[in-house]
Design goal:
By secondary structure, the protein is of the alpha/beta class. The chain has a single domain, classed as Rossmann fold (3-Layer(aba) Sandwich). Helices cover 39% and strands 17% of the residues. Helix 1 links the parallel strand 3 and strand 4. The radius of gyration is 17 Å and the shape is globular.
Length: 254
């Protein structure tokens, strides 16, 4: 792919057009320390089963995209959902996407669907958070310490390269700001009218099942849930077979 520039920043983007006519595009939105590469072969596997197009990208500051210097604004998720993502979709001529978001990416997908109720064909929210819990903050503090004192910097450098410090500390320090403890998108959920699939591991160490219940009870459209036993924060890797089957069924019925 040639460089894609959105709002003055170069983004790492990988896309594959739909194999079948009239099939939607699935846009994959990565987690808080992820990138386009975090999805590994999942986009290709979903495309093979559904005939859909797939678009994965690394947000500004992640993966092979441009560096995002610290500090990051408290509104970084809203900016992605309401300013950057719509421009990226327009660049590729994508209308009515299915948004598949993991963790922060799931929150971005929900914010987008609430802000543009007629735009999304469906949302898959995997380990998404809709408010701040202590378990989330504890997990972020633990991640920050592993980055500063353990092996996490070396591991994440393979994914984020020379801007790994700006990526990890930009993300952790933003979520740990006192003014973000009141972050809460639950009041926006009733604006979501498209079908939603909610996926979460029962042993997720970044959030409880309260997020699942809030989404299920909050959105206005059809909603399905998949809660997985013996599964943590990354169901699409820890329970790949179950997630792929549920995602395929969901998309085929859109």
């Amino acid at each position: 792919m040639p460089d894609i520039r959105i709002a003055g920043h170069r983004l790492e983007v990988v896309s594959q057009a739909p194999a079948l006519p009239d099939r939607p595009w699935i846009v994959f939105l990565h987690e808080g320390l992820g990138s386009a590469g975090q999805w590994r072969n999942l986009p290709a596997r979903v495309a093979a089963r559904t005939g859909c197009g797939t678009l994965t990208y690394s947000r500004w500051g992640y993966g092979g995209s441009d560096t995002r210097p610290r500090p990051w604004p408290a509104t970084f998720l809203d900016e992605e959902a309401t300013a950057i993502l719509p421009r990226l979709l327009a660049k590729f001529g994508i209308s009515e996407p299915v948004l598949f978001g993991h963790s922060d990416g799931g929150s971005i997908a929900l914010i987008y669907a609430a802000a543009f109720p007629d735009a999304a064909r469906g949302v898959i929210a995997e380990a998404a958070h809709v408010m701040v819990e202590e378990i989330q903050l504890t997990g972020i503090v633990r991640t920050r310490q592993r980055f500063l004192d353990g092996d996490l910097r070396a591991r994440l450098r393979k994914q984020h390269g020379g801007h790994v410090d700006d990526t990890v500390l930009g993300w952790t320090d933003t979520w740990l700001r006192p003014d973000l403890r009141t972050w809460d998108i639950r009041p926006r959920l009733p604006s979501i009218r498209c079908p939603v699939l909610v996926i979460q591991g029962r042993e997720d160490d970044f959030g409880t099942l309260a997020h699942v219940e809030a989404i299920v009870s909050g959105v206005s459209g059809r909603v399905e849930r998949l809660v997985l036993d013996d599964c943590g924060h990354v169901p699409h890797r820890e329970k790949a077979r179950e997630v792929l089957a549920a995602v395929t069924r969901f998309i085929q019925h859109l």
